[in-house]
Fold this sequence. Notes:
Strand order of the largest sheet: 11-14-17-16-15-18-10-1-19
Structural class: alpha/beta
Distance between the termini: 18 Å
Largest sheet: 9 strands, mixed
Radius of gyration: 24 Å
Amino acid sequence: MTKNKLKLVKKINTKHCVGHVLTGNYQAMNKFHESVFDINLLNISKNINYLKSKLRQSTKIIAVVKAYGYGHGDVEIAQELENLNVHAFWVADFEEGVILRKAGLKKPIIIANPSPRSTEKILKYNLDVVIYNFRLLDSFGKLNKKIKIHLKFNTGMNRFGFEETDLIDLKKRMTEYPCLSIESVCSHLSSSGNANKDHITLKQMSAFEKIISSFKRNFSIEPLFHILNTNGVLRFAKYQYNSVRIGIGIFGVNKDKNLLQIGSLSSSISQIRNLKKGDLIGYDATYICKKKTRIAIVPFGYADGLDRNLGNQKGSLFVNEKSCKIIGNISMDSCAIDITQTDAKEGDRVEIFGIKNSIYKICTQTNSIPYEFLSKINRRIKRIYHSTF
């Protein structure tokens, strides 16, 4: 890429970069960074449009961007979603909400797990809060400040939430706190992606239906109601009510082939070694070469998000579209792969996940889930954002 072309790419995409490396394609950035998380923002639009096709036009989308945007970068992802006119953002705590506000996001930001100790920041940055017990209700209500709240109910997951039987007391308590404005009533599905547990999902839906009916009897308002997550939208769209809460589907990490993975993670070969039979590799010398072996050292380790369980030939990385086993123990900042059957050279690109190596495949090898894998990608890995076909 010429110098002028590189400047053009940066100019086009700079609007997506807040506190991160300037955007451009992998080839342009590879000379600066060994490991790169390449993120195609255009695929977010495609994923949102596909999910919208399952919904009524009037149904509002609450976008979940917690945990640093599932590892992709919260600000850049939220900016793209705001351009796509999602209704609101859902984050884990007030610090995540403050980051988005400071970056200029205007849409409502909902704090899933607010602390009474963070009320000053919540008020200052105009953040909504999820209220799931009377302790929180009282803490925020007694402030006598205008705060938008979202009431969460337990429908069987038994994590956070009021019970249906709390609604009468809730009505009484809310009369004491006129400054609190109920924006939505919600719950959380435990097993919507598991067809073998649809009976559990349907039981939760039934419980939520009762909660909605009881709420409407006790309150003279009709806020948003939402229980569906990504798999809920894909498999139980009839329960969409007037809003849904979408997370992993935004990022295209789902078995539905119509959802496009927005990110690919890659590194490069830092050093190549030619070893002889009997040579040892890595910490604890867990790998002993049985013959002449050509290995590559990749500067990506467990501190970067590569699960140690992928070591000792359990996982593979791809070099020049060829699968190369990870050998020996994975180190904090590097790993070794067997490139004996390739013509790889130092500096070549190594795919950690992407077209050849899916996140689902990696998670199967580590008995993990995509959520965990993505959220563990270290922030020191450079995120590069672009919009290309």
